[in-house]
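Limitations
The structure tokens in this dataset are predictions for the assembled complex, not deposited experimental models. Users should treat interface geometry with appropriate caution, especially where small molecules or nucleic acid strands are included. An illustrative entry is reproduced here so readers can see what is and is not provided.
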Amino acid sequence: MNLIIDKLRDYPLAVVGALVFIGCVAVVFVRGDVVDDLLVQEAELIARIRTINDNVIDSNNLEQDVESLLGYVATIDARLFNRNERSINTAFFYSYEDKLDIIISNVSQLTDEDPALLKGGPNELSLHSGIVYEIRADGTFQQILEFMNEILKADALMRIANFEVYASTAQGAAPGTLSAKLRIVVLAEKN
Amino acid sequence: MSRQRDIQPYWRPDFKIQSTLPDIKIVRTDFIINAIAIALMLIAAFTLLQSEYRAYSLHRSIASMVQSIGETEANNDQSLKESERFRKSAQSVVELQDFFRAPFTAHELLAELAQLKPTGLIFSRVMLSNAIIKQKGTDQTEAQAQMTYEINITGDARGLMVLTEFKAALQASPSLNPDGFEVAVDESMQQRNAKTGITPFRVSILLTPVPSATQSKGGEG
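Predicted assembly:
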């Protein structure tokens, strides 16, 4: 032991250097993870700042867009059918008789919804629902075509899903009179 | 660096005791040991300092970023709320588009068929129907519900050439060949009435959606 101590006494500078080296290595070893942790933290913060910047860019003029969009939504909502107002809804379709000089023989509000608008359907609705009407109308080809066009142009939001047009078989029908069976889907308030 | 040695008891060195002899190497052992020790110390110290400086810089950078985020947090929350309001409002408009999604409108289809009808062909019934099918996209993702449409026309034809002409007109009509659909036109005939020369016919037009890559609905929240 004394021999070693004697030897170390021969190299005091080397001993001091070795002690400093060991100390430095120990500190580097103990604090080695600090830099890695800080790098991870820095990367997370950079990503967060980037997201915030993207949000700022994306939200440019968003308030005006939202206000404008809410205006459209209010217009849509005002034009929705209420499925409980059956008489009003039915009268709406019969009103075309006077407008177009067409004979509407039947308007039926069906209880089943259009499967295309139900959950899993190709045009699934989540904020609205669809009411299906079956309408039978008689008139000339021109009148029926006009009726179909008016349905699309109506204030209420509706479209003809299916139709069947054929030569009228009604008694006393004038020659050239056609019958139309229309399946109309109307956008309505959510159930 | 000079080294203290024991006082030499002899009046001249005993060359048999090597430790008492002077160090005559070109580079002295003392120098090598000290140089290595100092070099290692410097390397370790430099590494430590570099690491600590890096940590210090990162601390400062992180503190600056945290402060910056803190200052913009309120605006960001407001933007996110606006974005959520926009998304919800847009959903209503998207549903409206979905509701009206169809390859053609009924009255336009009927008018188009009437326009394409050649003289010598009489329609007795025109019918549009639709059905829902489940179809996988080209990327073989989960099958999605899609609409198929079928138009059936029945009537009487004065001669088969008129029917062929009508079929060709249907196939060539842009309105009856909407984008994203495969169109198949098929005709069938009943026996010709020998007295009148009229052949009852039925033309069927089937529109099937073309499989496409799946598209995600809406954007990120």
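Some entries come with short summary sentences. For this one: Residues 29-100 of chain B form the longest helix (72 residues).
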